[in-house]
Amino acid sequence: MELIHIRLEAGDLARRAEVVVMHSQTGRDEVLEVGQQLVVTDLDGEFHGAEVIAVGGDGADPAYHLRIGARLPVDIAAQRLTDTHTQPENAGVQEVVDLLGELRRLFGGGLGGGFGGGLDDAEERDEP
Question: The CATH number of 2-118 is which of 1.10.3570.10, 3.30.1330.10, 2.40.240.20, 2.60.120.280?
Answer without folding.
Answer: 2.40.240.20
